[in-house]
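Budget justification note: compute hours in this period were largely spent on complex prediction jobs such as the one shown. Inputs:
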Amino acid sequence: MERLVSMMKKFTALSAIVLLAACGQESVNEADFYTGKDVSYIVATNAGGGYDAYARMIGNYLQKYLAAENVIIRNVPGAGHIVGANTLWRSKPDGLTIGTFNAGLIYGQLTGKDGLNFDLREFEWIGKAAGEPRAIVVSDNCAIKSMADLMAAGEPVKFGSAGIGSASYSDMMLLAKALDLNVNVIAGFDGTEGEMSMMRGEICAILGSTSSFQNFIDAGYGHFILSIGGSLDGVPNAMDLAESEQARKLVAIIDSLATLGRISAAPPGTRKERVEKMRAAYRAALQDPALLAEAGRTGRPIEPAYGDEVRQLVVDALDQTPETIELIRKAINGAQ
Amino acid sequence: MDLGGIFDALLTIVSSPYHIFLLLIAVPIGMFFGAIPGLGGKLGIVLAIPFVFGMDATAGALFLIAMHSVVHTGGAVPSILFGVPGTGPDAATIVDGLPMTRNGEAGRALGAAFGASGLGGVIGGLFILAVLPLLRPIVLAFSPAEFFLLALFGITLIAMLSGESLIKGLMVGFLGLMMAFVTLDPQTGTQRYTFDLLFLWDGVDIITAVLGMFAIPEMIALGVAGGSMARADKAAGSYGLGSVFRGIGDVFRHWGLSLRTSLIGCFIGMIPGLGGDAASWICYGHAVQSSKTPERFGEGAVEGVIAPETANNSKEGGSLLPTLFFAVPGSSGMAILLGAFVMLGIQPGPGMALSGMDIVWVLIWGLMLANIIAVIMFILVAPGLGYLSYVRGNLLIPFVLVLTFLGAFLSHRAWENMVLLIFLGALGYFLKKYHWPRPPFVIGLILGPIAEDSFHKSMSLWGPAFLLRPGALIMIGLIVLSIAYYIWGVVKNKKKPEWQHAD
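Corresponding output:
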C-alpha cells in the first residue's frame, strides 16, 4: 500500500512537472508563435485590383514583423466580398488566418442582406490601411457645374455607379436621399467604365473616392462639386448641406464607411495574445518607411488606424436606430 | 509621328543583352501561365510584380508586356491537343483545333495557332501606331448602345455555328443565354436562379462552362473509344516540323481572313468592356460566315484555328491603347498591367502623349518582339507537343482530367465549380454524342450578360431611342446583312440544306 501511495505521489509529482514544462513550453511557443509559421491572408476579390494589391504589399511587411515563414495571399472572390468574409468568419481562429474585404458589407449587415453569415462586430479587427473622403466629380460635358446646379436640377441628373448591392451604389442612394437630389442612378459602371461614360457625355457625374478621380481631373475632363467628410478647396461639404437630423445621420454613415478603407480582421475567437501580436505587426508594417515609399510610388494612399479604433468605427456604424435602418433600406432599394 | 524615336526604342531593346534576356525569360513564363487552365495572364502579372519592382521602367515594362502579350499563344496548346482551353479566349480554338488533332494534324494545327498568334500580335502592335492619331474619336464612339448591338450581332452568329441544324443550334444557344441569367439581376440586385448558392451570384463561370462543354466530353469519348487523341496513323509523321511549317503557311495562305480577324481583335480590344472571349468567338463566327465551305468547320478546318488565335493576340495591342492614353484599361489583364506600370513610375493617361512616348514605343516593340520570339520558341517544341496527341488515352485522361478540375477550381477559387463542371460535362457529353452543336452554348453564355447589361444602360441613358444613334444604325445594318447572308446561303443550297457531320 505504502509503495502504491509513494508511486502515486511520484506520479503526481511527475505529471506536475510535465504539466509545468508543457505550460512553460506553451508560453515560450506563444512568445514566438508566428516564427517560422505560414499565415494566410484572405482577399475577398480575385488577384489584381486594389484589395489584392494592398494585401500583397502589407503581407510582405507582416511577414517581416511577425517573423513568419510566409504570408500567403488566398483570393476568395465572389458575391461582392461576401464569400471572402464568410470564409474568414468560419476560418480556424488560430491566429494564422486574417482577411480583408470591403467595409460596404456594413450596409449588407444593416439591411439584413441574404448570404451574410457573419456579424462584423464579432471579428477581431486588426486595422485598416486606407480610407479617404468621398466626393462627387462631374464631367465637363455636363450642364451641371456646381452643387447649386445639382440641387436645383429640374430633370433627373444621370449618375453612374458600380453594380447594385455594391458599396458605391449604396453610398450614392443614401446621399441622394439625404440631400434630396433629383438624380437617376445608373448602375453597372465598374472600374473606369464610369469615367469613359462621362467622357462620352452619357452620365454626368459619379460619387467615389477622391484619389481615384485624380487622373481624370488632372487631364481636364471634370471637377469636384461636393465633398463628404473631407475638405476640398472651394467645394461644399455634404454635412453643411444636410438639413435634417436624419440627413446628417445618413451623411455620417457614408463618411464612416469611407473612412474604413482596406480593413483587415481575424476570425472571431482568435486568442487575445495572437490578435495583439498581429495588431502590433500590422502597425509596424504600416509605419515602415519602405512600405510607405512603396505605397507612394504605386499611388495607394495610406491612412491607417489600428485594432480597437477600427472595431469601434465598425460597431458605431452598425449602431443605428430601427428608423434609420429602415431609411437606409428604403434609400438603397429606391431604384426598384 | 516621331520615326526617330520609334526606331531608337527598338535599338534600346535589341542593343541591350539585358533586355533581350528579359524578353527571353518573360515569353516562356507568359506562355506557361496561358497553357495551364485557370492560371491565366492576370495571375502571372500579379506574381511577377515583386520581381519587376527593382527594375528600371524600361526593363520592367518590357518584361511585363512581353509576358502578357504571349499568354494566348501558350493557351492554344491544350485547346488543340486535349480540348482543354488554357484561357477563356482560347476556347474557340477547340472547335476546329481538336478535330485537327483527331485527324492526325496536331502539328499543322499547332503551327497555324502559333503563326496566327504571332501575326495577330505583330498586327496588334502596328495597329497601335496606325490608330494613335484617331484614338479618341474611335474609342469614344462605342457606347452601351453599340455594345448591345455588337453582342446581338455575335448572337446571330449562332446561326453560322449551328452546323447541320439551325433549330438545334438555336436551342443550345438559348440554353446558353438562359445560363447567363443565373446571377444577380443587374437592374434590381435580386437573386436569379441562384438557389441561394453564393458561388452563383457572379454567374456561371465561363472557364468552367467551356471546360465542361469541351474537355470533359472529349475525355469521356476518348475513354469510350480507346486509343489516342489522334486517330490517324502515327507513321504519317503528322507532328513533325514539316507539318508545323505547313500550319504556319496556312496562316498566310488565308491572308485575307488572318488580316480581318486580327483587325477585329484590335478593335474589340481597344473598346473597354467587351473582352477577349467575345473577340475570339466573334472572329470564329466570322471565319465560318466568310468561308465558301462552311460545312468543313467543326471537322478540323484550319481557318477555325487561325481566326480566334489571331484575334486573341491582336486584342492585346488594341487594349494597350486606352490603357496607356486614357488610363482606362481595355481588359481586366490590362487593369493589372496598368497598376504595375504606375509602380514602375510610368504614369498612363492623356499626359502620356506629351511626356512619355519613349516608353510607348518600347511597349509596342516589346509586344511585337515577344510575339515573334514566342513563335520561334514554339516551333522548336511543337513536334514534341504534337507527339502528345499519340499518347494512349488511359495515360492521358487522368492527367487531362486533373488539369480540367484544377482549371475549374482555380478560375474562381470555388470548389462548387467542380460540381458545376461535372453537371456541364454530362450535358456536353450528350450534346456531343447526339451531334448537337456546342459552340452556341458558350456564345450565349458569354454574350448574354454583355447584351443584358448594355441594354439596361442604354435604356436608362436614352430610352428606346438608343437604337437610332448613328453607330447603332450601322450595327443594325450589319445584323440584317448577316441574317440575310445566312438565309441566302440556305436558299442557294436548298437541294442540300443539311450539312452532314461525320462526327
